[in-house]
Structure formats: C-alpha cells, structure tokens
Amino acid sequence: MTLVDTPVITAGGPSLTQERRLVTAIPGPRSQELLARKAEAVASGVGHTLPISVVAAGGGVIVDADGNSLIDLGSGIAVTGVGNSAPRVVEAVTAQLHSFTHTCFTVSPYEGYVAVAEKLNELTPGAHVKRSALFNSGAEAVENAVKIARHFTKKQAVVAFDHAYHGRTNLTMGLTAKNIPYKSGFGPFASEVYRAPLSYPFRDGGLSGAEAAGRAISVIEKQVGAENLAAIIIEPIQGEGGFIVPAAGFLPAIVEWCRANDVVFIADEVQTGFARTGAWFASEHEGIVPDLVVTAKGIAGGLPLSAVTGRAEIMDSAMAGGLGGTYGGNPLACAAALATIETYEEDGLIDRAREIGAVLIGRLNALRTADPRVGDVRGRGAMVAMELVDPASGAPDAALTSAVAAYAHANGVVVLTCGTYGNVIRFLPPLTISDELLIDGLSVVAEGLKHA
Ligand code: PLZ
What span, in angstroms and rounded, lies between the C-alpha atoms of 358 and 119? Predict the structure, then answer.
C-alpha cells in the first residue's frame, strides 16, 4: 500500500473549505492504516460508522487524513450544533485552559459552573424556580435525574417507553429498549424499571395522541401503580429509537397524569436539546413543562458536559453531598457551554434549525412521493428522518437502509441510521451547514436510494 501524498490538514472550524471532495476511495490509505491500528488496540465492541481517520472538521464538513472532505449530516450524533471547533468555543476553552483546568466543583467551586446552571435554569421550559446539577455524559445525567426523582418522591419505580434510548450504563441500559447492540449479555439490569407503549403514528394504526396516552397510562396503572412510581422518563422525540414524533397531545396527557399522581416527569432532551428542533428544547413544541430536563450533547460544542435541570423543590431534595462526581461541570466544559449557548443565541441558530428542517422535509417528502420505499418522513427542525419499508407489506427494510447509508458513506456523506428495526435514516446536520452542502448531501442519499 502506498500512501498518497496529501498534506494532513489539522486546523478545523468554519474556515475549512466547505465542499464534498473525494481524492481517494473511502477509506483511503491513511484511514486504512489507522483502522488497522484500531483493530489491534481498541476493543472491538467499540464500533465505527465511517471507516475514516478524522483530522479536522468545521462548518458542515469532516476532513480525513487522506484529504477527503465529507459532508457532515450527523454532528457526531447531535453534538456539534454550533459546528466543530466553533470560534467562540475555541476561544473560551483556550482562555480557560490557561487559567485552570480542574479543581472539582464540589471541592472548590468556580463561576463557570454556576453560570451554566443559571443559563439552563433560564432556558429550559417553565417559569418556576429551578436548580441545575452538572455531569459528564447523557447517561450519567439520566441516572442522576432518576436518583433525584426517587429521593424526592420516596418511591422507586421508573417507567420508560418502547423504542427508548437513555444510555449504556447499568440503569440506563435497563431504561433503553433495544436489545442488540445495547443490552444483550450485559445484564442483569437494575430493578424497578418498567416499559410502556409509545405513540408511534406511522405504526400505530392511527391512534390519536390522547388514545396512545390512555393506552400507556392503563399499562402503567395496571402493571406498576402510581403509588410505587417515582418517575416517567421520555424523549420528546425519540432519537436512537427512530426519530419518532409522538402524536399531538400524547406528551401533554402523560405530563397531566404525572402531575395528578405525584410522579416526576423527566424529559430526556439529550438528543433533542439545544436549538436542534427549532426551539431550545423539543418539549416546547408540545407546550409541556417537564419537572426535570436532562441535557447533554449539543450543550457544549463537543466537550463532555451534561445536566439535570428542574423544579427547585425536587432538585433540592437530595441531601448535601448526595450529588456530584469528580469531573461533573469541568471548567473547560463549562467555558465551552457558555460559548456554545452564546453562539446559538448570537448566530440565530434556532431559526437556522427551522430553515434546515424546511429543506430536509421538502427534499425527503419529494423522495417519498416518488418512491414508495420511503414509508414515512418525520421530525422537527434539523432533526429529521425517513423510515424505509417494503412497499407491499410496510415491513421495515433494514437491508435497504444499510445499502443507502453505505452508498452515502462511499460518496462522501456522513449519514446515520437508527430505529428499533434499523430502517431509519436520520439527518442531524450541524446548524452551521450551508444550504448548498445540505442539498448536495441529500442528493447523494437520493442517488443511493435509486441505486439500491
Ligand atoms: N439520552 C436521548 O440520545 C445518546 C448514543 C450513541 P451519552 N445517544 C447517542 C451510542 O451509540 O452510544 C443519548 C440519547 C438520549 C441519553 C443518551 C446517552 O448519552 O452522552 O452517550 O451517555
């Protein structure tokens, strides 16, 4: 194998040339070299979607070690809403690096953590008095939301929904619905976790939101009982489970039932949060006010940070010292979060998410009209997906989905799949992507569908 003589680009950010450019096959020789090392050094359970070696990213592109420039329609799974190496983030984190990198907030506090908590209390839905606590990953924040709800209610059971994804730690694996690859062989799982049916309009036989909520509530009352139930946790739009937008009225009915039954309603906005859906939080589209909101991913421009934000009386119920962790609310991550939130605000990225959504929905609906294998197009803002099916039976077509994704990858477009049945192609572009790149990326996906 001879290495092509391509300069290795290392400076990322929005000033990278915004183009799809393939100078080798994917993977090119340098990427292949890294993947060979990965196979020898990294546990094989840690997979990868794209066989590339990333050296830079920004705006709407990811550049690999061979000099290929790929269109990013995944944002590292909904993380880099402000783009990779976003200028304000780079500046804020660099400044923080030079002052201090860590003290452990629960040993000696600093302003960044408090400022992020203030911002979260202000931005999350509802005008009530709130508190926040910061953690590292989405899963860790979900775990803490459940801990807090249990402490507050003095009850133990937790209900999650069909198709849910909440993480890979023990409790969050239990909350997550899908067996392979998330759960199989990794048990036993935490006890007192129960599952309720979701509203899934495309596969629900036309159940209204209220009817689907009634069905879920009946299961919860019969199988768990409100007197045992600490919390219901739900993604307002499911992410890994297939970008399922519940029918209108479903979420409000569940919230109302929680209020009437002293059950904490937890919105997992890890994937939907932070401008992604054309609002700060997806809960806003249904006018619901969660008791606790879990955030991560898009909060800090790629640095690891997560949070639980919610009603002061619930958040404050845990005893002093009951919440924490060595790195939670690390100063670099907090500096990144403040700069990230400022970027969403100053650069009008909530509006931009809506514009991106209009392009996505328009193009994908055109595909659906032309091709009966596109069974459904759904989502909000820059969180949109198409579900691929066998047109005759409506059965999920995972093989077609993999083929379309593989075509896109080979042709320089980073797309992700999802869904319980593996038959959903999801679009989560950075909100800094240009229309031109977005449309080029979608054309490649359309070609892939034609080819498959
Ligand atoms: N809640 C709604 O989407 C993470 C998973 C990637 P962590 N989703 C991406 C993978 O294959 O591991 C996610 C989510 C929702 C919680 C989480 C968990 O967030 O930061 O990955 O722990």
Answer: 29
Closest Cα partner for 342 from 87, 11, 77?
87
CA 262 to mean position of chain CA atoms: 28
Tell me which residue of 28, 32, 33 sits closest to 4, measured CA to CA: 28
> Which of the two residues, 164 and 7, has the higher pLDDT score?
164
Q: What are phi and psi of 115, to 5 degrees?
A: -65, -40
The pTM score is 0.97
pLDDT at 2 (0 to 100): 47
Residues with CB under 6 A from ligand 1: 77, 137-139, 142, 165-168, 235, 239-240, 268, 270-271, 296
Closest CA to 380 of 252, 253, 281, 250: 281
Report the percent of the chain where pLDDT is more than 70. 98
- Lay out the sheet containing 61-64: strands in order across: 54-58, 61-64, 69-72, 413-414
Residue whose CB lies within 8 A of the most ligand 1 atoms, among 135, 266, 271, for a mutation test: 271
Q: Note whether 9 and 69 are same-domain residues.
A: yes
Mean pLDDT of all residues in 37-62: 98
Whether pLDDT at 147 is above 80:
yes
End-to-end CA distance of the chain: 30
Whether residues 229 and 139 fall in one domain: yes
What confidence score (pLDDT) does residue 4 get? 52
Distance 166 CA to ligand 1 centre (A): 6
Alpha helices in 322-434 (DSSP H): 331-346, 349-370, 398-410
Atom of ligand 1 at shortest range from CA of 297: 20
Measured between alpha carbons, how far is 20 from 442 in angstroms, rounded to an integer?
Answer: 12
Domain range for residue 429? 2-85+348-451
My answer on whether 192 and 256 are in the same domain is: yes
At residue 4, what are phi and psi to the nearest 5 degrees? -70, 150
DSSP-derived 3-state class of residue 33: helix
Nearest-atom number in ligand 1 for the CA of 269 is 2
For the purposes of burial, counting CB atoms within 10 Å of the CB of 99, is it exposed (0-12), middle (13-18) or buried (19 or more)? exposed
pLDDT at 8: 58
One domain for residues 134 and 211: yes
CATH of the domain at 50: 3.90.1150.10
pLDDT for 206: 86
